[in-house]
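fwd from M.: "can u put these together and see what the complex looks like"

so here's what she sent:
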Amino acid sequence: MINVTIDNKHIQVEPGTTILKAARQAGIDIPTLCYFELAGMKFENKPGGCRVCVVEVVKDFNGKPRRNLAPACATDCVEGMEVLTHSPRVINARKTVVELILSDHPNDCLQCEKSGDCELQTLAQKLGIREIPFKGAQSTYRKDQTLSVMRDVDKCVMCRRCETMCNTVQSVGALSAINRGFNAVVAPAFEMNLAESSCVNCGQCVQVCPVGALTLVDNISDVMKAINDPTKTVVVQTAPAVRVALGEEFGMEPGTIVTGKMAAALRQLGFDYVFDTDWSADLTIMEEGTELLGRVKKFLNGEKTALPLFTSCCPGWVSFYEKNFPDLLDYPSTAKSPQQMFGAVAKNYFAQKIGVKREDMVVVSIMPCLAKKSECARDEFKVNGNPDVDFSLTTREFAHMIKQCNIDLNNLPEEDFDSPLGQSTGAAVIFGATGGVMEAAVRTAYEVYTGKPLANIDLEVVRGLEGMKEATVDFNGLPVHVGVCYGLANARKMMEEVRNGNPRGFHFIEVMACPGGCIGGAGQPYHHGNSDIIRKRMEATYREDAGKPIRKSHENPDIIAIYKEYYGEPCGHLSHEQLHTHYFDKSQHVEACGE
Amino acid sequence: MATIKLSESKINFIKDVCKSFGNKGGEVINVLHKVQGEFGYLPKEVQEVVALELNIPVSRVYGIVSFYSFFTMTPKGEYPISVCLGTACYVRGAEKVLDELKRQLGIEVGEVTPDGKFSLTVLRCVGACGLAPVIEVGDKVYGRMTPDRVKEVLAEYK
């Protein structure tokens, strides 16, 4: 341990601790901008670029003051060091740094999507910046968008968080810093449109962007228009992870469960039917679980089959393997994601049931996700050009809608979802957290395979914020080896392992693109690097599961009913038609041409 | 499925270069250096092949190419012209020589003439300050350049 003094406070830290981390340990907050950390989730971005965290080292290793101010995020503590974090010199420099950043930043805070959630705005406010003494050139860069992500890089402060996220955490490699000096910007290769790059629309770049350079594509007005169109029947579904995060946008503690208030708010907003993606998550388990057992049985009989089965609920992940692993397209489950299953059921079964034409029904989803916006626009999820899910909104957009319509979420009485696509089990709830789909599938697959009740349905081994997990579940003498991971770089490692012969013998692997699963999704309220928020959402998810009277998908009475009434059996003919999909090679190839 | 089209011999050259550096992502600058040495520039397709061979994102390759002024995505002319703008050349009127070259060739710095014959770049000091101002055409050095001499120098290559 080494001894340091920060703001006259004496502390002991491990060697190799930065001044920033030492200060945080001592409860001293040093402002940062480019620095970003998700503690416990192996994500740290410290380019040392913005210089907002500069501090004064009044006593260095040699007992003398350091001549220049030091960036706290990139300077290690040394024995006997004395540091001041808010001396006049520091404050002055910090203000100048922020003034310089602002001198090339568009002045449109009032209209900016990020207003109120912007770290640069907060910093300027905290430092009391009242004028910008520097006048100079302004960046002008074209705006660019995918179906999910909006890029307005004139607002970019070159913190490079998005680049670290895209390359190190997700291994997608769509974004990189290009050019130099004033022309430096974060962009896709050759400054092509993001939509044409290797981007998978996971949106994690948006989740970590401190400013409004990367934001979401807003579909609120599309949805409002549909709600106010008397000829349309508007059906809404809400993803599992939304109910444990929405409250944060209304000042509630992270981890507050607002399921009932959320349903009430949706009804007040004017949706005709308030349903639940959790219901179709149960349906997903029926299909995917059956598919898993089918493949395992084939495998045991010595037949050729694609094992391990990969989950396919996460559209960022689906896009990722289509672009990177075209040789393994047989491996992911063909089951559609819960969002798309819901859309298919709503526009086929339910539309017919209530006597509404497909074109007159609008299905809206509320998702923790940006990739869902791209998923619902995929051609294979359309019938004669009409999509199964018309619009996908994020948790943040949903919160904006509630605020726009001055609905007081905090004081809304709780309401239930509508029937028949509203009732769900605990197994569906946990889809929102990493390991949840796996646990839900095991709860059902075990009982279907063995014909016996699962003694302990809490599969603790696959829970928690570990990036990669593995476990073996004993299916009555058959050891089923399962893997769980989040973050696409972790997924890439898993896929490469499978490509190299699956040495660990996995049968089933769950992949989620976002940190912690959907609870850390790009459409969720900004966590600003506080991984405790993700942890609390996760705890809430398992709390909601534990409180459910039914906790296994195959015991959901509405699921049993729809198979009886409509689909026949899981993986049967009709469900293959409506609830399953296929994947495409979207990779890049080199091909020689004559010259 | 997006396809990169490039002649087989070029693809093989890039593959060989990458292989000679162990197909390591960390060697990307060395690889690009060699490849540009052969092709004269680094078009998009070439960068894509380098990225695939080294197993790194093409955005990173482009990030490097766009960062270092040595790398270029514009093809060089048959006779690349470099004008020295180092201190000695500059004070002795290199800029006027450059302006005359731009005027006669009808191109800006970093561009190539439509017939592909000449391209124009600037550099800092070729170590011949005694001959300032200096230009290079290919490997040949022309000292004590004046705007008046531009026409006669270009004529040698027409």
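replying to her w this: The first helix of chain A runs from residue 19 to 25.
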